[in-house]
Amino acid sequence: MYKDHRVAVVVPAYREEKHIADVIATMPDIVDDIIVIDDASPDDTLAVAQAAATERTTVLHHEVNQGVGGAIITGHKKAMELGADISVVMAGDGQMDVDYLPQLLNPITDSGYGFSKANRLFSSSSFAGMPRYRIFGNIVLTFMTKFSSGYWNLVDPQNGYTAITKEALSLVPLDKVAKRYEFENDLLIWLNINNVRAIDVPIPAIYGAEVSGIRLHQVVPRLLGTLWSGFWRRFWYKYVLWSFSPIALLFVLGTLLFVFGVIVGIWAIVIRLATPDPVSTGTWLLALAPTLVGIQFLLHAFMLDIEATPK
Length: 311
Fold this sequence. Notes:
- With about 300 residues, this protein is α/β, with parallel strands linked by helices.
- The protein has two domains: about 5-240, Spore Coat Polysaccharide Biosynthesis Protein SpsA, Chain A; about 245-305.
- The protein has helices at about 20-25, 45-50, 65-80, 100-110, 130-150, 165-170, 185-195, 215-240, 245-275, 280-305, and strands at about 5-15, 35-40, 55-60, 85-90, 115-120, 160-165, 200.
- It is elongated and about 85 Å long.
């Protein structure tokens, strides 16, 4: 129990036979329920977790691998079933520092946030020890996830050290959330659709010697697809179906004008290169004016979207 809130920690585990026992043993007393989900591990993760289980530990097992997101979803459902007020996610590899758990919970218990997440990129020293490919990937994914999710105040979206209230979880159609490595990004999109307040909490990461098992050639296309479809899902629900906000009008008109201007501009360039006749000033204006106006509309739409971030 933490500040009169029942806390459950969800631990997705896949091939974590070397770490899962320590993760269970080092869980602080403020945690009421430890929910370990063995995601069809081919090693002894399940047996080790069962052997290390205490009275507050529940060990679940997937017969078929569902991915890290699928394991977390199973854990969140179990947390709600157990009556947890807050459901926290900690990886089974021990790379999430339990000493910072109170800091992750405080925005929820003290300030009424529905979702909090760790942010490893809170200062210039945060990059020390982080592999360069992770730095680059985080920068790119941070911007793309801001754009898709509408949480322009959040950074480090792939950080899985999170806490969420039962009220926020009840708003999310968990069975529709992506179940693989893109889970965190898709969850943010669903949370924003439902106007859940979210905040970053500065928490340093612990990097071990483990080699990532992520297959980029499989993960990247799925992630891009999730972000692309998620943006349009959020746009439809928040700005068209539920409110028909001026943001929708600005974005649609801006996109149409920009595309029209670019097409006319390309056509004018092709004509200029293919024939000796000069392109008229009116044609160039027909390309330039819609393009510039479209850009202005799009920029204004994004500014309004930033202001609409749940705070």
